[in-house]
Structures are given as C-alpha cells and as structure tokens.
Specification:
The chain is α/β, with parallel strands linked by helices. The chain contains 13 helices and eight strands. The chain is 65% helix and 9% strand.
C-alpha cells in the first residue's frame, strides 16, 4: 500500500466510524508494505478478506463467490488499492454494499494515474465521475446508496493520485456526514452530497500539471546562460540517479533470487514435514506476494530507467539549444558592452564641452556686466553734456539778444546774472563779466568833465566790445555744435556697444541652450545606463535564486535516497515519513513543524509541509530559517 492510500484510509476510518466500537470489513486486506488494520483500535471488530492467505487475512474467498459474512452487519466496508486489479469491480462493489448495515459507509480507493502494476492484473483507472456511476449502478440493483463525497487526491511521496469515494447505505433517518475528508487532504475534482458542481475542478491530471510546470520553467530559463550549467549539472545528476537505479535494480534482482531460493527451500521443507505444512503454506503465500511485489517493483524500476534516459536525452537537446542561444546572447552582450563604452565616451565628451561652455558663458556674462556698467557711465556723461550744451546754446541766444545803450545792456546783463546764479547756469560768470565790463564803460569819471568827442569814442569802444562779445558767443556756439556732433558720435558708439552686448547675450543664451541640451542628453544616458544595470542585477539575482533552489533540491534528493536506502525502505510508509522528516531536521535542511507553525493555511489544509514547499512554497517565496 502506497503512502497516500494509507493516509487517506486512516482519515476515512477516523471520520466515518467509531473505531473503538466499530465493525469493519476490508476487501483485499493482505498486508503488502502496510495495511489499514494498523489504524484500527484494539477493540475494533476488524475482518480482513482476500483471495489468498497471508498476514492480516482472516477469510479467503475465491473470485466470483459470495462473501462468507452476514449482510447488513458492518459499519464500514473498505477496498483500498483493489478495484484496479479486479476485472469485475462493479460486482465487488455490490457485495460491499450488501455487507454494510443501514446507515453504514462504503469506502473505495483506486488509482487515477500511474504505471502498470499487475497483481496479477491491472485493468482500470478511475476518473472524477466514477463515484456517481457506481451509486447509480447500485440503485439499479435495488440498493439505496448515496454518494457522500468523492475526490482525486494529490500524490504524497509516491507517484500515485488516488480516486476516493465514500458512500452511505440507506434507508436511514440519520443525517449525512458534513465533516468531509477532502477538507483535510489536498485534492481536486471534489464532489459532495451538498454540492451540485465540482469543487476545485481540474481537467488535467497532476502528472500533466507537473509536466506543464516543468515545461514553463524550462521555457522561462531560455536565454539564461547560467541555466545551461544548471541543466548540465542536472544531466549529470540524472545519469548518477540512473546508475543508482541500475544498482537498485541489481539489488532487487538479488532479492528476487533470494526469495526464489527461499520459496524452493520452503517447498522442500513442506515436502519433508506434514506437521509444518500449514505454516509453510502461509510463508509460501507471503513469499509469493513479496515476489510479485518485487517483480512489480522491477518493472517499475525499468520503466523509471527508461523515463530517466528519455529525460536525460531531452535535457541534452535543451543544453545544445541553450548553447546556441548562449552564443547569440554572448554576441549581443559584446555589442551591448561596446554600446555602454560608447555612451561613456559620449558622456565624457559632453561633460568636457559643458565645462567649456560654462567657462565661456561665465566670461561672456562678466564682459556683458562690464560693458553694461561702462555704457551706463557714458550714458550719464552724455546726458549731462547734452544738458550743458543746451544751457550754453540758450545762454548764447540770450546774450545775442541784449540791445540798447550801455546802461540798458548793463542792467539786462545784471538781471541775467541774477537769474542764472539762482539756476546755477554755466554762463553765470559770463553774464557777470558782461555786466561789469559794460557798467565800467558806461559810468563817466567825476574828476574830469565830459566832452562830446570822448563820448563818441566811448560809444565806438562799446560797439567794438559788443562785437567782440558777439564773436566770442559765436565761437562758443560753434564749439557747442562741435560738442553736439561729438555727442552724436558717442551715442552711435553707445548704440554699437548695445548691439555688441545684445549679440553677446544671444550667444550666451545659445551656449546655455546647448548646455541644457547636453545635460538632458547626459541625464538620458545616465537613466538608460541605470536601467541596464538594474536589468543585469535582476538577471544575476534570478540566476542566484535558481542555483540556490537547485542546490537545495539536490540535497533533498540525496537525503530522500538515504532515508529510503537499505532497511529503511522496508518500514511502513508512515514510519518512513517520520524518519525522513527527522533526518531533514537533523541535517538542518527542512523543518516541517516550523513550516506548519509559520504558515497556518498549510496546516489547516492538512498538507504535508515538505510536499507543499516543493510544489508551491518555493515558487511563492515561502521560507523557514531552520537556524533562526
């Protein structure tokens, strides 16, 4: 009996019967690698029925005969790993239903997948709707049978997926069970008396899902150079496993020879002693059973060898494909590295150009500031000179308008002097000089008499003086005109200077625009370089994670091989699981109890912690630090 059938049978017996007071009938009860009688309580009325005598067999019945038990007398009738070998399992099911009491339960467990394992025949595999078909078939023969629950269980540490169905025989007033077994064992395609549709439906078998997952993992690793080495290591590991499988095959052949020798010896002893005949018959049946089991294991081992060879060939082909992909990726990586180097050179060139532009921009800004300061100074000087020139021109015009005799001119000059002095006019001193000159010539001397001839001479001198003054004013006006022209020239130079400043400002703005564009391009290059670096780091992390998971799986495979080697492979499945869990914990490889304590959902589902971690937890990122 394989491990998952044993675990499910234990759950069914504890759920659908009161073991301490129950009456249980097991069809196919011969103990081969464990049996469900181990689950029963010491007070359980347990009856084992099989077609041959052996351990755990209480009654022997020929194929097709009625069971030598009272109908309607058993609380629980079971057949685990039997229906696949029974060429007429539907008739067996009817006899099981007749043996159950009203309100009692019928439990069947049969494989839904797996290799051929004849004992002595291997006829059937069961799919999710088989339970409904069996219940309908029983009702057609006058039996009131209800399907309580059925499901397809996930494999445990072996390759089998079990189809499980529990029925109840009526009529009875007791309510149907609601503490379903499927709630405590990982499974799919669940059907209960409460549900009109399947729970957790799946069109694919677990074998197909595992194969699809492996294909996805292989596809996900294409192009990853590190995966090539990993696959090569897996090929080596598979070849090592193949050699170990061959060694185990040789060991099984040796066991078969020893069993055959023991069988011959038992037959010889049986011929010598009639008194021990009964015991020898029992031993012979056990040896034949073990021999058939070994033959089945040999056939499965050779099938496993062929599967390993096929898997190795497939992996070798994948390695060749990945080698070709690695060559292409190496070329692309070289091109990418060259592109990165070119980007680095462009970045250095742009940084140098940016430094030159910043230096030129600083110098231009300094020149512009100096030119603007000089221009402002010259502008103020020109404005002041313009005001003075206007004052000179206006004053010269006022002086030219002076008329009359000397006294009148002196009075006008005096008024003009007073006016200009208040206004701080630049010709104030000229007005004072004119006033004093005219006044000195206009006042006669009190010591000498005035004569007519002298008066005419003074008038002529006054006229000459006025003409000379007018000449000086004209010269002053001419000088003002020259200064005005010089002022216009200076304004032209200032305009030219302003144009130069505008040109420098435009050039500085152009340099600034170029510098901004260079900075933007530099930022783009830095961003692309950062993205490339992040992608490379992500690829390295992914490769490291795959390497770590692969090393963990290799170590797990070695520990499982160790746990199943030698005498450990002969102990019951439950004890083997316990020894394996203790070995994994002692080797600090995996702590199942800590995993269940950390992840309550796994514990609530009743799943094996190691199986859940390998199938789901590793991909989901779950982890328990066994050293913590």
């Amino acid at each position: 009996m394989h491990d998952s059938a044993y675990r499910i049978g234990e759950l069914v017996m504890r759920t659908y019967s009161d073991l301490a007071n129950a009456k249980v009938l097991e069809i196919g009860s011969l103990n081969i690698n464990g049996c469900l009688r181990d689950v029963a309580a010491p007070t359980t009325n347990y009856v084992g029925l099989d077609f041959k005598q052996g351990p755990s067999v209480d009654m022997v019945v020929a194929p097709g005969d009625d069971y030598p038990v009272e109908n309607g007398s058993f609380d629980l009738v079971m057949a685990s790993s039997v229906f696949e070998h029974d060429p007429r399992f539907w008739d067996t099911f009817l006899q099981m239903c007749r043996a159950a009491r009203r309100g009692g339960h019928i439990y069947i467990n049969a494989p839904a997948n797996g290799t051929v394992h004849r004992y002595p025949l291997d006829c059937w595999r069961f799919y999710p709707d088989a339970g409904m078909a069996l219940a309908d078939y029983a009702r057609l023969h006058g039996l009131e049978i209800d399907l309580v629950e059925s499901f397809t269980g996930q494999r445990h540490s072996d390759v089998w997926n079990d189809f499980v169905a529990i029925f109840r025989k009526g009529p009875t007033a007791d309510p149907l069970n609601t503490a379903f077994v499927y709630q405590r064992y990982p499974c799919s395609n669940v059907r209960t008396w409460q549900s009109a549709s399947l729970i957790n439906p799946s069109q694919s078998t677990e074998d197909m899902l595992l194969l699809n997952r492996l294909q996805q993992q292989v596809a996900a690793t294409e192009g990853d150079a590190a995966t090539i080495d990993s696959l090569k290591s897996q090929v080596g590991q598979l070849e090592q496993a193949l050699n170990e499988e061959r060694q185990q095959q040789q060991s099984r052949d040796d066991d078969m020879q020893r069993l055959s020798a023991a069988l011959i010896e038992a037959q010889q002893i049986s011929a010598r002693s009639d008194a021990d005949k009964s015991d020898l018959i029992d031993q012979s049946a056990v040896l034949r059973s073990h021999l058939a089991q070994r033959q089945e294991e040999v056939a499965q081992a050779w099938l496993r060898v062929r599967e390993l060879q096929s898997e190795r060939d497939g992996l070798l082909a994948e390695v060749k494909q990945l080698d070709a992909s690695q060559s292409k990726m190496s070329g692309k990586l070289i091109e990418a590295e060259k592109w990165v180097f070119d980007l680095a050179a462009q970045r250095r060139t742009l940084e140098n150009r940016l430094q030159i532009v910043d230096s030129a921009l600083t110098e231009a800004q300094r020149c512009i500031a100096n030119l603007k300061r000089d221009g402002d100074t010259r502008e103020r000087q020109l404005n002041d000179h313009r005001e003075v020139t206007r004052a000179y021109a206006a004053g010269a015009a006022r002086v030219q308008k002076l008329a009359g005799n000397a006294q009148q001119i002196a009075a006008q000059a005096h008024d003009l002097h007073l006016e200009w002095r208040e206004k701080n006019h630049p010709l104030t001193d000229l007005a004072a000089f004119l006033r004093d000159t005219v006044a000195s010539e206009a006042v006669p001397s009190h010591d000498s008499p005035v004569r007519a001839g002298e008066s005419s001479v003074d008038s002529a001198a006054l006229v000459a003086s006025k003409a000379a003054l007018h000449s000086d004013v004209e010269k002053l006006v001419a000088r003002l005109a020259d200064q005005e022209k010089a002022l216009f020239d200076e304004q032209a130079r200032v305009s030219q200077l302003n144009e130069t400043i505008s040109a420098l400002r435009a050039e500085a703005l152009g340099y600034h625009a170029k510098a901004s564009a260079a900075l933007e391009q530099l930022e783009v290059l830095r961003s692309e370089h950062g993205q490339q670096a992040r992608r490379l780091r992500a690829a390295e992390d992914k490769a490291a994670k795959k390497d770590s998971d692969l090393m963990w799986m290799r170590r797990l495979f070695q520990l499982i091989e160790y746990a199943n080697a030698g005498w450990r492979g002969l102990v019951p499945p439950a004890l083997r699981r316990f020894l394996l869990a203790r070995t994994l914990q002692r080797k600090q490889h995996f702590d199942g109890q800590a995993y269940l304590e950390k992840y309550a959902d796994v514990a609530a589902a009743g799943m094996d912690p190691l199986r859940h971690y390998v199938n789901h937890g590793m991909a989901e990122g779950r982890f328990v630090d066994i050293n913590g």
